[in-house]
Amino acid sequence: MGGHGYMGWWGNMGGPKQKGITTYALSPFEQKPFAGVSRAMIFNTSRRVSAQIPYIGVAFGIGYGIYTWATARHEYLLSKAGHAEAAGH
């Protein structure tokens, strides 16, 4: 083993004491891991959703326009006039 003695655990290797370093510790029983989570969730979610409304709104508007056009066209093709137009082809 070569004459080396026990040097201590990590951070306590037997060197000179450090000065001017302040450390703080909090017991795990005193911590509040979910403090403010519900408030942050509400505001972050509303902010992110409201930022996406212009993109979603445009896509929804285009999709709704296509749907209403296709529904009207389908109803027309099922009507008597639509059958008469299709028979002319």
TrEMBL record:
Any one of the GO CC terms: mitochondrial inner membrane
UniProt entry tagged with the keyword Transmembrane helix: yes
Assembly behavior: Component of the ubiquinol-cytochrome c oxidoreductase (cytochrome b-c1 complex, complex III, CIII), a multisubunit enzyme composed of 3 respiratory subunits cytochrome b, cytochrome c1 and Rieske protein, 2 core protein subunits, and additional low-molecular weight protein subunits. The complex exists as an obligatory dimer and forms supercomplexes (SCs) in the inner mitochondrial membrane with cytochrome c oxidase (complex IV, CIV).
Protein name per UniProt: Cytochrome b-c1 complex subunit 8
Keyword Mitochondrion: yes
Membrane topology field: Single-pass membrane protein
TM stretches of this protein: 53-70
UniProt keywords, alphabetically: Electron transport, Membrane, Mitochondrion, Mitochondrion inner membrane, Respiratory chain, Transmembrane, Transmembrane helix, Transport
Intracellular or extracellular location(s): Mitochondrion inner membrane
GO biological process, one term: mitochondrial electron transport, ubiquinol to cytochrome c
Function: Component of the ubiquinol-cytochrome c oxidoreductase, a multisubunit transmembrane complex that is part of the mitochondrial electron transport chain which drives oxidative phosphorylation. The complex plays an important role in the uptake of multiple carbon sources present in different host niches.
Family in the record: Belongs to the UQCRQ/QCR8 family.
InterPro entries registered for this protein in UniProt: Cyt_bc1_su8, Cyt_bc1_su8_sf
Superkingdom: Eukaryota
Record Pfam families: UcrQ (PF02939)
